[in-house]
Known about the structure:
The chain is α+β, with helices and mostly antiparallel strands.
Amino acid sequence: MKLLSWNVRGLGKPRTVGRLRDFLRDVNPSVVFLIETKLHADVMLKVCKRCGFPNGIEVGSRGRSGDLCLAWRNGCQISLRSFLVRHIDFMVFDDGSGQWWRCTGFYGAPKEQNRRASWNLLRQLNDLPNVPWLIIGDFNELLFSFEKSGGRIRSQRQMDDFREALEDCSLADIGYTGRWYTWEKGHFVETNIRERLDRGVANPGWWSLFPDFTLSHLSHSFSDHCLLLLLTMVQSGPRVQWHFMFEAAWFLEDSCEFEVKRLWTASSGPIPERLRFVGQGLNVWFWRLRASRKVSKLDLTKRLEDLAAMKPSDDSLEETMEIKLALNLEMDKSELYWEQRAHANWL
């Protein structure tokens, strides 16, 4: 199965919701844990349904609604155990292994003075030591000083408290693939700070149940947190067959007007035949466009990952911003493409 965890830092803007829907469509997770959604419960659940997750629970924090949300697709077996403002605890059935295992979506206290209360919560949740258990989310803390670059040095006591809490619960960091940090702020070298705040930790039972898992830090073009994508096993699905139709997203392509004029000029005969010729030509152009767009998006994402692995400089940070803008434009095209298929009155 696939499970996605992400601190979205607010879903109040329609464009952000569209970006979320685009990401969920690309990675196709079965379960999604979202942090800091900043939406009221009824609105957040509507967003989940729009993204293809009809089942879910939303937990509001003190003074705000919608800080945590757990959502899952039809066919996914979920049994809720407990939830508060800092966690959602549940059991999930894995089709691949044929077993139930425990998962906790976690959000550590952002303020340092409340961090110990978060670690005590972990100890309280440790009531089923013999059940495979994974905790995933934004812990807002480091395990080691090398997990931070820039800014003030992290207190050793803070990191020791976090490690002690994990040891008391027999939990260990499960590692990752991709960029080493999961949170970043500052667009100049002097102000740039990078930290690994988001992670997954698990007990020995979970490690034994899923020896071939992967946890990836996914690249992004918005939010200052990376997405965490957990795969307990490799999955693949059939591709959806595409049928010709005029795409509203083509208007975002600079070559669209030129292509229509070129095809119309090259056509001959009665108008219906000329229209059929233009349609067939646009069909070929569309497939080439989709192929080049996919390659372009992959190249941009790969370059974003390369820049993330480099030591920050003014040039690299400037290029990072340019790539994020280019990725946002590609997502605009993809969003318009899927809006047309959903017959949604998005305006």
